[in-house]
Amino acid sequence: MFKDSSKTSISRILKNKKKIEPPKICITEETLLKFKAYVDSCEKEIGWLAFVRKEEDGTYLIYDTILPKQEVTSVTTELTESGLQEVGEEVLQNRFDEFENIRCWCHSHVNMQVY
């Protein structure tokens, strides 16, 4: 697409970058409490998936979450293939209309700072 992608800047791709506004992202209180429960229940890194929908006003709402089986260490998390398959099967069977709303992956950073 670009002759020399190492020299491609966002201003070259987006001609009028001043008009670009960051998306507004909200999360329901219940979902945020689930996120907190995941983090509080695991002394290691942990990851999860979240359901997101775009509201009429353009806001992205994180409205639910699902915790797949995974392999964790003190600093990493890897969602397992079988864990993702189970999530897919569960959502397709019980929440078919929401399958395409699994649009977010989150992880805890345990007790480490974010860089």
The shape, in one word, is: globular
Q: What's the average pLDDT?
A: 87
For the sheet with most strands, the description reads: 4 strands, mixed
The secondary-structure class comes to: alpha+beta
User: Could you give the order of the helices and strands?
Assistant: HEHEEEEHE
Q: Estimate the strand proportion.
A: 25-35%
Oligomer: single chain
Query: How much helical structure, as a percent, in the residues?
Result: 25-40%
Query: How are the strands of the biggest sheet laid out side by side?
Result: 1-3-2-6
Radius of gyration: 18 Å
* Low confidence ranges: none
Question: Terminal Cα separation, in Å?
Answer: 31 Å
- Count of individual helical segments: 3
Number of strands: 6
Task: Describe the protein in words.
- There is one protein chain.
- This protein is of the alpha+beta class and 115 residues long.
- The protein is 26% helix and 26% strand.
- A hairpin with a 5-residue loop joins strand 2 and strand 3.
- The protein is globular, with a radius of gyration of 18 Å.
- The mean pLDDT is 87.
Task: Describe the protein's topology.
Layout: H1 10-13, E1 25-27, H2 29-40, E2 47-54, E3 60-66, E4 70-72, E5 77-79, H3 81-94, E6 102-107
Parallel strand pairs: 1-3
Antiparallel strand pairs: 2-3, 2-6, 4-5
Summarize the structure.
The protein contains three helices and six strands; from the N terminus they run H-E-H-E-E-E-E-H-E.
Sum up the structure in keywords.
single chain, alpha+beta, 115 residues, globular
